[in-house]
Amino acid sequence: MKTSKTVRCMSFLFMFILLFLTTGCADNYIVLDPKGPIGEQQKDLMILSTLLTLIVIVPVLILTFVIVWRYRDREGRKAKYTPNWEHSTKLEIIWWGIPIIIITLIGIVTVRYTYSLEPSKPLESEKKPITIQVTNLDWKWLFQYPEQGIATVNYVQFPEDTPVRFEVTSDAPMNSFWIPQLGGQIYAMSGMSMTLYLQADEQGEYMGSGANFTGKEFAKMFFTANATSQEDFDQWVNQVKNTSPALTLDGYKELTKQGTSDVRYFSAFPEGLYEMTVTKYAASHNHGLSTRVQPPARVKE
Amino acid sequence: MWESVKEFASEFFVTGDPLIYGADVSIVLSIIAIVSVLTYFKKWGWLWREWLTTVDHKKIGIMYILASVLMLFRGGVDALLMRAQLVMPEMQFLSGDHYNQIFTTHGVIMILFMAMPLMFGLFNVIVPLQLGARDVAFPFLNALSFWLFFSGAMLFNLSFVIGGSPDAGWLAYPPYSELAFNPGPGQDFYIWGIQISGIGSLMTGINFIVTILKVRAPGMTLMKMPMFSWSVLSSCIAIVFAFPILTVTLALLFIDRYLGGHFFTLDGGGNPMMYINLIWMWGHPEVYIIVLPAFGIFSEIVATFSRKKLFGYKSMVFAMIIISVLSFLVWAHHFFTMGSGADVNAFFAVTTMLIAIPTGVKVFNWLFTMFRGKITFETPMLWTVGIIPNFVIGGMTGVLLSVAPADFQYHNSYFLIAHFHQVIIAGVVFGFFAGLYYWWPKIFGFKLNERIGRWAFWLWNIGFYLCFMPQYALGLMGMTRRIYTYGWDKGWFEMNLVSTIGAVIMGAAFLVQIWDIAHSIKHMKRDTTGDPWNARTLEWSIPSPAPFYNFAVMPQVTSQDDWHERKLRIEQGLEKPAKVALEPIHMPKNSGIPIVMSMFWFFVGFGLIFDWLWMAVPGFIGVIACMVVHSFNYDTDYYVTVEEIKRTEAEAGRVIT
Ligand code: HEM
Ligand SMILES: [Cu+2]
Ligand SMILES: [Cu+2]
User: Fold this and answer.
1) Is it the case that residue A18 has pLDDT exceeding 90?
2) Quick check: A298 pLDDT over 70?
3) Any idea which architecture B42-591+636-652 has in CATH?
4) Which of B293, B393, B424, B519 has the fewest CB atoms in 10 Å of its CB?
5) How many whole angstroms separate alpha carbon B451 and alpha carbon A157?
6) Beta strand pairing call for A130-137 and A164-170
7) pLDDT (tens digit, 9 = 90+) per residue, B427-470?
8) DSSP letter at B110?
9) Which residues belong to the signal peptide in this entry (chain B) (predicted)?
10) Bigger pLDDT: B21 or B465?
11) Which residues, other chains included, contact B492 with Cβ-Cβ below 8 Å and sequence gap of 6+?
12) Chain A stretch 267-286, residues whose beta carbon is closer than 8 A to a beta carbon of chain B
């Protein structure tokens, strides 16, 4: 059977477009352009697992093409035809075996990285980590700096080369806290405080977002994560301390109301606000361990 | 008085959106059109006798398929609306609320009211025929399953114009789906629409397990059973374990919302994570439930169009059973980032990857069925061959996602959207299309047009790659799912544009397919052979379309691919068409109870959604009354006479002596 001309033209067009797609501009792929140790390792892992799977996938794709081409029914073909050949132990062992080997490899790598990249595990560094407490609100992010005593909305700044210990909770439906260039996300859930260590090795403004749907204006929950030098950071903290209003309890209540928000700075926040937000729900929400009293922060130090 | 009516109407009906007014008008117009056509041609009685009350598995199957094509249209329009909104940054086409409702209805409709019924449609038309049976094990229950699915689907669709659609995503995670954040009736439409149809699905699962285990033709041992039937069996086993979880989960959510329970709320001792665990204990097996039958379909088609025996039958069966068991052990891969700790994540990452092994084996077996075969590319085979690269790539990205620490970066991004559409569209929907093209002559008695079918195939595939390949890229660019708008600064414009173009091409492909059907109905050439593809299994041994009693004489099975072997023996003169003595055939009678009972279920659901007990309670009494009436009905069967069998077979071009 002869494929019609239209079909051929279309498949050509199709391959052309694919080619065009795969050569797109590369600097946009922020996940593949990490700026910190966690993102870095995750990228390595992504590439490694891709290569391992390609060991199976590419031969299969080629094999598919070759078989379909060679054994198509046409006049005077020379390829063999064995209508009743339906079993071969040798072949079966090969293709149970290959996937088993590849999956074992990927599995081992995965398990090792799962332990080493556990998000609540502190990063190795000479510098003392800085703690930033993140609260997911409807539809904005509140950042509190317990050591510096300041707070911000939809903007977070921290020094480069310093581990940042994000403590993440929610005073709204469950969201997910994600700064792709620094590393993977963690869910923000009411009643618990999740810990996520990230670090920026380079100064720069990185995109951050809410990754788990929380309603109407969820799409507006982007924020900027700005990694600067230690001096710039200290200066910024001082500036916020000196020029911005304080966040009061009433002000916080106002923030929890549904609505989007611009970037905002606060020179102070109510003592223990983050812990209060967590414990407000904590009694009810502790991964089913309801008989045990759950400490606000899940992580053993 | 008038004022209060107006006030009620403005709350009850969804108002204020031109799209929805348009839908209102078209719904009313099409109802008027349908009613007047039926009345004009005096077809009400025919419709009732021949279709609405039927217990014939083939007709029920056709109704499933019809409903699912309608739902594909609805879900497809939703998809196009979303892609239109995302085509470029800062689009002002849909508001956030509206977008959320659309992706929620799109997801629910595509999975539960499109893929599931399309699958049940194929189960119904084909399985009994493949098994050499006269019907499913419980024909009445089968009709009831269909009508429950149908009233659930209608209930869900109504939310679009009445009360407002759900907007919490297709799995409705609390606390967002709880009363505190979601006070309108939309979420209750979700609960009851799915609940009612879900009960239907569970019953179908039971029905087909019993059918496959109990009513096979004499001689057909399990290891001689066609692969599609095997895939249906493994899928149904998963249904029977998964759907009760769904029923309970939705019931608990409803108790939370309606009776002030605290199962999943944040106060009063509730735990939203419990819901997320439960819903995925159903949700993950659910995706295997719909993909396993597609595996069966590929196996049948590959063997038929390679003119070769299926390679590695035993391994295929074994692989399918492993898949259906493993699918219950992987659910937590949907929330690696919830902080369950490294032990839990490592366990679920590994169980997830393990599924890739049996799946990979199946692909090899299909390839080696083609190896040393004589492959022809009629539309069903074209689809099957086209699916293989798609499915292989989708499977590969699945393995990538299962690498837990890497999933911290893929999760909730467009990479995930691209992955699951690739397996669900290219694996499941295209698989069912292949099955539909393959069995179409058996169902309707004529083939679909090959040339238009080819157009549809290419448009679907090109559209697919254009739409979803860029989404893998978007995921790596950090674009999160379920956002209705984004800024120019993100650099996501080009890929989104290409993606939307792809979606439009798929929309065109759907229209071409509808045209294919219309064209083929008009210019059809009847299939007089009953076996237009020169196929291998029993369903092809009877006339097309199958007579209502299926087999005039019960087949006696001696081997795998029995029909193929029988054809060979007749060709070589080893077997002559035997003289047979026809006997009267025992058949179930039609019944109006399934449709009436499902209507009552509809009232129960609708009443509970709006808290109208005056509607829900009588509705429930109606349901019970239907059960009582049915259990006292002893007049449920009849016999087809030998004369009628002879006449029917002669009309189909077969003379039985
Ligand atoms: C035919 C072309 C299709 C297109 C263009 C399309 C497009 C989309 C888009 C744009 C979204 C929303 C992504 C987001 O904002 O998060 C989506 C979500 C989804 N789609 Fe499709 N889709 C198609 C077919 C299907 C099919 C066939 C199925 C299943 C059988 C399906 C199942 C889903 C599900 C489950 C979701 C998730 C909904 C949610 O987030 O709650 N789609 N699709
Ligand atoms: Cu939690
Ligand atoms: Cu899953």
Assistant:
1) no
2) no
3) Up-down Bundle (1.20)
4) B519
5) 61
6) parallel
7) 999 999 999 999 999 999 999 999 999 999 999 999 999 999 99
8) I
9) none
10) B465
11) A28, B89, B474, B477, B479, B486
12) 281, 283-286
Distances in Å between the Cα of B167 and the Cα atoms of A20, A88, A169, B104, B478 are 36, 52, 23, 5, 23
Quick check: A81 and B169 CB within 8 A? no
Average of pLDDT values for A177-192?
Answer: 94
Q: Is A187 on the interface with B (CB under 8 A)?
A: yes
Q: Are A264 and A137 in contact (CB under 8 A)?
A: no
Domain locations in chain B as residue ranges: 1-41, 42-591+636-652
pLDDT in the model for residue B423:
95
pLDDT for res A290: 33
CB distance B349–A96 less than 8 Å? no
Question: Distance, in angstroms, between B338 CA and closest chain A CA?
Answer: 5
A296, B55, B368, B396, B399 from B423: Cα distances, Å: 40, 33, 22, 10, 12
Token pair recorded at residue A119? 């998000």
pTM of the model: 0.92
Closest to B362 measured CA to CA, from B427, B439, B413: B427
For residue A145, give the nearest of A228, A261, A266, A256 by alpha carbon: A266
C-alpha to C-alpha distance for B617 and B607, rounded to whole angstroms: 8
Confidence class for position A87, pLDDT limits 50, 70, 90 = confident
Residue A113 has pLDDT above 60, yes or no: yes
Q: What span, in angstroms and rounded, lies between the C-alpha atoms of B483 and B651? A: 58
**Residue B445 CB partners (closer than 8 Å, separation 6+):** B524, B526, B527, B544, B545
| Helices B116-131 & B186-214 angle (0-180, nearest 10) | 10
Least confident of A35-39, B219-223, B526-530: B526-530
Distance A202 CA to ligand 1 centre (A): 37
